[in-house]
Amino acid sequence: MSNFEKKFGKYAVSNLSLKLVILYVIGYVLYYVKPDIFSLLVLDVTALMNGQIWRLFSWLLVPPESGSNFLFVAIMLYFYYSIGTSLERVWGDYKYNVYIFLGIILTILSAFFWVGYLRLSGCTGLELATLSKYGAGYFSTYYINMSIFLAFALTFPEAQVYLFFVLPIKVKYLGWIDAGFLVMSMITGNSAERFVIAAALLNVVLLFMRSRSWMSYSPGQVRRRQKFRRSVEEGKRSSRSAATIHKCAICGRTEKDGDNLEFRYCSKCEGGLEYCQDHLFSHVHVKKGETPHMMKMDRQ
Q: Torsions phi, psi of 98, nearest 5?
């Protein structure tokens, strides 16, 4: 994978999550303005093989939840955008691109395999066209987004979200629920649903079977990297607050405030006070019990 990234990484689509969300927004607008057009967009393999080539790409406009209200749609799109961008930052654009486009390709292949399965089952031409048109609705972006969430749960298992905006719950538990739902749907669903769910789960399996070489960081490495960053930041803060060698008694500057700063001790001040070059000749000599100050301040 690293060799492929060296050759093709420059062609990776940046901000892919945002572009997917924009496609969903266009799909929602089409759904509310002209819902009948959706029948021409879905991944209907028989229609595709009859010359409707645009269906190979137009099904990406079909949003995951086309019948939901506006508020739910806005929340869902923001959620998918946030988890997608998080994965992009950790994996990098190229590897996130491969994951998304692999999911798209597997979904298309699953639709063709399903139609082949129907043919082998002895369906007539009319039955095949009817079943393919009916089952095309299952081959949508819904299960691709489910696979994105599973990848997010495996990468950030300790991340926390607020269920119903109130109940805090770790993503790993939602991931188990998501996986259980997919398995149950495979058992109880129809043949089209089984094929498309298998494609989504296969995408996740292929990713994490090769997680060490495929991802920038495995889930455990992400946690270790975050811990390392915190320790580095704490070390920087402690080094900034550490004692310095030189410090001006007037302005408080130290040798860390500038490479060209010079400091001298004043032999006429009691207490061994030190001054920078700007205040060495402009301060009032300090006697016991007095506070260092400048001559101008003393005149005032």
A: -60, -40
